[in-house]
Amino acid sequence: MAARGVGILARLPLHSQRRSRVQRSIPRHFSCPGTVAANFGSEEQPLGSAETGSEDKIPKKRFSEVQKERREQAQRTVLIHCPNNINEKKFLKYLSQHGPINKHFFYESFGFYAVVEFCQKDSVNSLQSEAHTPNKSTESAIPFKSRFLNLKLKNLSNQIPEQLSAQTNNQSPPSSKKLFELLNYAESIDDQLYTLLKTFQLTEENVRLRHLTCSLIEDIAAAYFPGCVIRPFGSSVNTFGKLGCDLDMFLDLDEIGKPNVHKNAGNFLMEFQMKNVPSERIATQKILSVIGECLDNFGPGCVGVQKILNARCPLVRFSHQASGFQCDLTTNNSIALKSSELLYIYGSLDARVRALVFSVRCWARAHSLTSSIPGAWITNFSLTMMVIFFLQRRSPPILPTLDSLKSLADAEDRCILDGNNCTFIRDLYKIKPSGNTETLELLLKEFFEYFGNFAFNKNSINIRQGREQNKPDSSPLYIQNPFETSLNISKNVSQSQLQKFVELARDSAWILEQEDKGQPSPSSKQPWGLAALLLPPGAASPSLSKKKKKPMAEKVKGLLAAIKSNSADISKGSRGKRAISTQA
Ligand code: CTP
Ligand code: MG
To answer: Ligand 1 pocket check: which of 214, 245, 340, 381 to mutate, most ligand atoms within 8 Å of Cβ?
Structure first.
């Protein structure tokens, strides 16, 4: 996805600068009076959530409130494929015939697109009633009226080439060259971690596009299941999403057929006639199968639809071409949504949490510990759990255990899903901030030391209790699922991948220790601090490599000995084979 004329990577504040290029002031009559986003052109933080890292001075909303507002916002929004040379002012004037516009932006992804949010839902209906189905002589289109539209210029020959065409908003992460420049320019390792966070976190526009994509898919699913809801979950909403991450969505059918208690008085009870199938799994497979077909045949912009129905958690995977998102659609998966809410809380409690998670995720990606292909590697979700666990183990703890979040819960927080107790406090203001003042530099180094020396052979990671526990089975890495406590979220990880993680963690702790000793300094041209950790092995600065030689050899020997002696049971049954698993 190439950005048109947007040189996004100058010195920070990066994401605000990125926005200011795009959200140019909109004539007054285009905006909605009285809405928070009426001043969008200047400084927007409409939802005040930690989703996009905009949390600093804004009250933190509950996860459910943020999701509700985002959903409503998405329902008032259309996605329009536009000609490249569109004049922004004329475009907005044309659209505002249907009602005031709250917010808009342009981006590129195999074409030039506009995301336009109206103030009222009626404006969308009005615009749709003006649109017509294309008339193509060579191909036949399947008529489907959606909120994904195509704008054409009439009388092309009479059009004067536009000088003032619209500028695009960037939806992709920076190149590694740019990232290294930014990191080298930072003033401290702490500054580097925050720089990385600001560079990679989802932008306001990217979050909007994710919710809009879910809303567009919901319109398609609603053709079969009126009243269904498509909810985003995972890193798109849990505050840990990196630009470019996949879009996990969940088809929620629970809202369908919920009785209206007030109308049910009297002696009669009316029920819907339904087909019965032998199990819930079969029902899930049938529903996803039909939605997969529907997306494949009628979903505008949905390509590469794969139905992966025999996985532990059946899903439909597809690319939403216009947004550029790789989408995983599941159903009957409300526990995953609950774990997204839990991570949202952890990510919102202390600014250091997201900074540390992003750095660990980028570090793991840089060393190919994680991959976008499912397999025997560690996943971002597991890495996030490891960081949370590590932060629960600090003294004083930076994050509370899940059990303590449960003990703070009110009656209204009570939540039992499929027999699993998923209760925890949801009001962020009721959680006492940590008194821990450790720097990110120290935390990063100690994270690597902690997991470089963790007894993976006998212990499991458990964020519910915040302490190491005996492993219930011989999986190389055991991270207990916080709600379905009999499940290991890292069951897929092979011994060799775990070993690679341990070795790299030890190396990285060592590199950071050398930094402590003053080598090399931030003024050096060599990558330093976090940047040095993101380099491929062997590419560290010459000063570090020289110093490293002897201790590294010793370290490797020590590591091998340790792994041989205390990991005998870890390695059993593991050959580092790539298993195709859709459940991380
Ligand atoms: N999930 C889970 N158990 C697993 C794997 C995933 O409960 N073994 C849930 C988690 O809530 C996770 C979500 O499914 O956040 C989506 O999974 P995945 O896309 O693998 O992880 P993300 O957290 O979205 O991270 P990424 O940015 O890598 O997509
Ligand atoms: Mg994901």
So the answer is: 381
Three-state secondary structure call for residue 555: helix
For residue 74, give the nearest of 179, 270, 209, 206 by alpha carbon. 209
Lowest mean pLDDT among 77-86, 207-216, 233-242: 77-86
Ligand 1 pocket member 380 (CB < 6 A): yes
pLDDT tens profile 125-148: 999 999 988 776 667 777 788 999
Which residues are found with C-beta within 5 Å of the ion, ligand 2? 234-235, 246, 248
Q: Of the ligands numbered here, which is closest to the C-alpha atom of 202?
A: 1
Q: Which of 238, 243, 248 to mutate to test the pocket of ligand 1 (most atoms within 8 A of CB)?
A: 248
Beta carbon of 235 within 6 Å of any ligand 1 atom: yes
Q: What is the pLDDT of residue 85?
A: 82
Distance 384 CA to ligand 1 centre (A): 10
Look up residue 489 and give its two tokens.
């979220």
Tokens 């990196």 correspond to what residue? 242
CB count within 10 Å of CB 93 equals 14
pLDDT band at 338 (very low <50, low <70, confident <90, very high): very high
Locate the ligand 1 atom nearest the alpha carbon of residue 328 and give its number: 19
Ligand that lies nearest to the alpha carbon of residue 338, given by its number in the listed order: 1
Residue 88 has pLDDT above 50, yes or no: yes
The finding on whether 237 has its CB within 6 A of some atom of ligand 1 is no
Helix, strand, coil percentages, rounded to 5, for the chain: 40, 10, 45
- Nearest protein Cα to ligand 1, atom 15: 234
Alpha helices in 96-175 (DSSP H): 121-130
Residues 6+ apart with CB under 8 A from 88: 24, 106, 164, 165, 166, 167
CA 230/CA 252 separation, integer angstroms: 6
Q: How far apart are CA 303 and CA 324, in angstroms?
A: 11
* Rounded-to-integer distance, Cα 551 and Cα 548, Å: 6
Rounded Cα gap, residues 10 and 3, in angstroms: 15
- In 3D, which of 450, 470, 434, 436 has the Cα closest to residue 390? 450
| Identity of the residue numbered 345 | I
pLDDT for 6 equals 28
Confidence of residue 161 (pLDDT cuts 50, 70, 90): low
Q: Measure Cα distances from 268 to 264, 265, 388 in Å.
A: 8, 8, 51
Side-chain half-sphere of 298: how many Cα atoms within 13 Å? 18
